[in-house]
Amino acid sequence: MLMRKVPGFVPASPWGLRLPQKFLFLLFLSGLVTLCFGALFLLPNSSRLKRLFLAPRTQQPGVELVAEVAGRAQGREQESPRNPAPAAPARGEDDPGGQTGARRRKAKAKAKGWPRRTHPTRPREEATAARSGGIADPGPREGSGRFSFDFSAFRSRLHHPVLGTRVDESQEPQSLVRTQREKVKEMMQFAWQSYKRYAMGKNELRPLTKDGYEGNMFGGLSGATVIDSLDTLYLMELKEEFQEAKAWVEESFHLNVSGEASLFEVNIRYIGGLLSAFYLTGEEVFRVKAIKLGEKLLPAFNTPTGIPKGVVNFKSGSNRSWGWAMAGSSSILAEFGSLHLEFLHLSELSGNQVFAEKVKNIRKVLRKIDKPFGLYPNFLSPVSGNWMQHHVSIGGLGDSFYEYLIKSWLMSAKTDTEAKDMYYEALEAIETHLLNVSPGGLTYIAEWRGGILDHKMGHLACFSGGMISLGADDAKEEKRAYYRELAAQITKTCHESYTRSDTKLGPEAFWFNSGREAVATQLSESYYILRPEVVESYMYLWRQTHNPIYREWGWEVVMVSLSSVL
């Protein structure tokens, strides 16, 4: 039957839909497909996709306690003395009656894919009982009174020999120690002279093109390298170079800038550098400029919760979050959590308590908010005060928050019990949910995305060995030896990420999957950008243990770095 074409008549589709309706339906369908497909890219970068589309892998052996695996690893390394495991204090017997075997059998029954710790070091009931037993409070909480810094006591300790430096050099070959120290000092002189020649006053030196670079991270501030180098030049007794840097700060470091700056970067590099230089030298110029710069950062805290946003506009006083941080809706844990040390000192040196009040409020918000399994996710809304995504990392986005907690406790002469409690509570949650031991016996701290682990560590996370070692002495007595051993094993894992790379320099991130351990598996992570975290942990472990292996590992990095530029 022929249908006459009548003006305005649109033949119905077999589904009874007119053309505009079909268009809307197809538009909706395509949007739904795009949304579902795009959601795959939000899954953690782990074996989750494999679990969706592939058959499960064979079961792996259960995970034992860190020290027990370390004991087996030590036995293996006696056969291969090239990289001996760092010695650690002996641990107490805390596994009577074959409990380890029972845990091993239980883990075998449950383990799929890579093994992971699902219980704390001791049963949760014992941990709770230990907490309820209480620890004597060493003093008032830091939040209960004004922060006070004993400058005279600090100055008296500046030139006091510290553990691991010149005190015990009688036990080392004097010529070797002296040669190593002078070589590192020579490297610093070379770096400073090259910077002064090609980029003096700029934020960075680009070595290939031999020119300076300002970037857009500091809101128009210049000389980031100068200010970041002040304390290093002073501690290395490079007097002439220090005076050059000081003169530049006095004459050329201007604060009348009007760009957008990173709250975090300006604080740790500029304010931190200026405060360090002031405490080392007493030079007033450093104190004055640190305080003025701190005042320029205060508008970042103008939010409903008092949680600062990541970017502050020096001209307008407005603030915003980074566009990449949950579409501009979140502040970053490592950024707003890494202000406490500097801001307390700004209040102490200026008499203006607003700096201390700002960071104390951050603690107040974090103490109040619910934390999934005791963990601190990386993204927090400065408007609502709610977590925006359950991504937890001891590396990038989270790292220095934990470091500032333990250092706040130590900086306060061990009176900031709030920082102490937050640190050890967070560390216990990390032990329970993120700590893993690979089949090869390497201890690592994975990343957590809503209950699913990414079995990787970033280079940034390698500071944790030093941090855990630093905090071991103030842990509960029954866990001190455990934390020293844990610190040693994590640092050993990070050292392995160096030795297993082609250049012998560690990658930006390394994985534990597909039968490969402590190696970069993606090209986008196979690079080294002068990150210091691994060597930092070597230094902390050397100071704590005097095990010469850490000095040797540090020197290996020096030699590899030298060979890469020759």
Q: What does this protein structure show overall?
A:
The chain has 566 residues and is mostly helical. It contains 20 helices and 16 strands. It has helices spanning 19-39, 48-53, 66-79, 99-110, 124-133, 151-158, 174-199, 224-235, 239-252, 263-281, 284-297, 333-336, 340-350, 354-368, 399-411, 417-433, 464-471, 480-499, 533-545, 548-565, and strands at 204-206, 211-213, 260-262, 311-313, 319-320, 331-332, 379-380, 387-389, 391-392, 435-437, 443-445, 447-449, 452-454, 456-458, 509-513, 516-519. The strands form 6 sheets. Strands 3-4-5 form a 3-stranded antiparallel sheet. Strands 6-7-8 form a 3-stranded antiparallel sheet. Strand 4 (311-313) and strand 5 form a beta hairpin. Helix 15 (399-411) runs parallel beside helix 17 (464-471) and helix 19 runs antiparallel to helix 20 (548-565). The chain is globular. The relative contact order is 0.10.
